[in-house]
Design a protein that fits this description.
The complex is a heterodimer of chains A (about 220) and B (about 55). Chain A has six helices and no strands. Chain A has about 220 residues and is mainly α. Chain A is globular, with a radius of gyration of 19 Å. Chain A starts with 5 loop residues before the first helix and ends with a helix. Chain B is mostly helical and about 55 residues long. The longest helix of chain B has 30 residues. Chain B is rod-shaped and about 75 Å long. In chain B, about 0% of the residues are buried. The model of chain B has no long low-confidence stretch (mean pLDDT about 70). The chains are: A mainly alpha (about 220), B mainly alpha (about 55). Chains A and B meet through helix 1 and helix 6 of A and helix 2 of B.
Chain lengths: ~220, ~55
């Protein structure tokens, strides 16, 4: 469509629908949360998007290691970068939400601390990258670190909070997605929102990847 | 006392943004939609510019 891949347009339309639908559709009346339950459609898709992008990043890192291909490293870096951006958005929106429902910007909720540690790990990924000059070495070492980061991050945000008490729904010895008080009215916006934001994340990463490829091409030609 | 309670309820009902679209709520929805459309429009133009450069 207009020379833009279909999934980019789909992502834009899904997010547009979710932005408006999240505000307009009726929501369950919950104590404390009240109308702020609508944040489910904005805050949570950030984390789902981040995780999808980080998984993609790890897949490309593994590919790059196996094929010894430097191009894969461009993908791995871009996906990790946008994943981290989504994570920052998730943390900031979560802090605003927490202030108004849990009473503080930063509670010592295990999920919050874990997310913060995990994001610092990915920040270290970029520090590591910028500290290595040689492109081949940079790709190899950062790919290994990337593959180490992902499982630790998954354990940090999905396993550890379930082992202790957590303020987040679905945690604190209470696994399973259904323990979210996710009724069908919320689902109608929530799932499109998640899918849409994932597409938008890949779109932004796609632009980053193509810019990087172009600049490398220009360097080679010069 | 009765008057006070009714007053309180009315006040709270007033400051709760209601999804039914009362109180110019739709204006905010429209503004958010426009901002998002603007960002997407910019992304599309970036994408197309890149495509031209790649050729």
């Amino acid at each position: 469509m207009f020379g833009i891949q279909w999934w980019k347009i789909a992502g834009a339309l899904l997010v547009l629908y979710a932005l408006i639908g999240g505000l307009m559709l009726p929501v369950p009346q919950l104590p404390i949360l009240e109308q702020s339950i609508r944040n489910l459609n904005y805050h949570v898709p950030m984390w789902f998007g981040m995780l999808t992008l980080l998984v993609a990043s790890a897949i490309y890192a593994a590919k790059g290691l196996m094929k010894k291909d430097l191009v894969q490293d461009i993908y791995a870096e871009a996906y990790a970068k946008i994943g981290l951006l989504y994570g920052c958005m998730g943390i900031i929106t979560g802090m605003i939400w927490a202030k108004n429902t849990w009473g503080d910007y930063w509670t010592n909720d295990p999920k919050l601390n874990s997310a913060a540690i995990g994001m610092l790990m990915y920040a270290a990924y970029f520090v590591l990258r910028s500290s290595i000059e040689d492109e081949e070495k940079k790709a190899r070492i950062s790919a290994v670190y990337n593959l180490f980061c992902l499982p630790v991050f998954v354990v940090l945000i999905f396993v550890l909070p379930r082992l202790t008490a957590s303020l987040h729904p679905g945690n604190g010895g209470n696994p399973g997605f259904n323990s979210y008080d996710l009724d069908s009215r919320l689902r109608m916006v929530f799932y499109p929102a998640v899918l849409g934001w994932i597409f938008i994340g890949f779109w932004i990463a796609d632009i980053q990847i193509r810019v990087r490829k172009l600049s490398i091409k220009n360097e080679i030609e010069d | 006392m009765k008057h006070f309670i009714i007053n309180q309820v009315q006040q709270h009902a007033g400051d709760m943004p209601n999804a039914s679209g009362t109180g110019k709520f739709m204006v905010v929805v429209a503004v958010i939609a426009v901002i998002f459309a603007g960002i997407i429009g910019y992304l599309i133009s970036l994408d197309l510019k890149l495509k031209k450069q790649e050729k």
